[in-house]
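Bug report

Summary: structure tokens for Probable membrane transporter protein differ between web form and batch submission.
Environment: batch mode, default settings.
Steps: 1) Submit the sequence below via batch. 2) Compare with the web form result.

Sequence submitted:
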Amino acid sequence: MNILVLNIATLVAIGLGAGFLGSLSGLGGASIITPILVGLGVPVKTAIANSVVTIVATSAGSSASYLRDHYTNIRAAMYLELFTIMGGIIGASIAVLVPSWMLYFFFAFFLLSSLLIREKIKPKEEGSIDKLTAILKIHGRYWENGRLREYVGRNTAIGGPLMIIAGLAAGALGIGAGAFKTTIMEGVIGLPVKVSSATSNFIIGMTGLAAATVYVKTGLVDPFIVGPLILGTSIGSIIGSRILGKISDKKAKMVSVALTLYIILQMLIKGAQAI
């Protein structure tokens, strides 16, 4: 009984921390949960499946606060979700068939690629708005440090299809793929960091829901694991979303980069051990 309580408490604590950091950075709590579960001895495919389900909780927990503060761009999210959901279903279908070590290395490779692209592609503050972006009306404004910031998106015809890659990784790896999503939204579509993080969290939930249907059918989802994780991530994501509005874009990006580097290292180690 004590072991069961300890395990539940541990899983809630993991979910709490992952939800908080995932919401704050825009990576999504599942990017953090999957490596931790693997480190605790959970098979990688089981960890991925249960992390996918928690994605929905993380998204739901943080989205309400982001919507209230006008960080989330609903029009951009609905458009980009069309592509991430498609990729999520394909990715989840592939993940149940390939060896575990391939998933470890794909996890590390994807996050490293996302990080490098994010540093290479800088947010675009200038440029003419394209026809599709004008039709979708992807623009908005929000308050930051007492000042009203306005922004206008662009290049949505390019950014949309690129989101298929994010969805593919999300479904195959049990992560929100927030690092890649925010990179595309910042560097290609030209959305501010906070708007990208908030919109990423909103999209993550829909992508996770699509991928979760595949994993539930395979029987990889364990209610004794996913239940406590959902409780923790829900609370953690709410706290993280409230703190995001009080810190600068620079600090939010520093958190995201630090977490990404740590996760890459852990996945490379696990991949080498699994061969």
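Above is the batch result. After comparison, the two runs are identical; trailing whitespace caused the diff. The chain is about 75% helix and 5% strand. The two ends are 36 Å apart (CA to CA).
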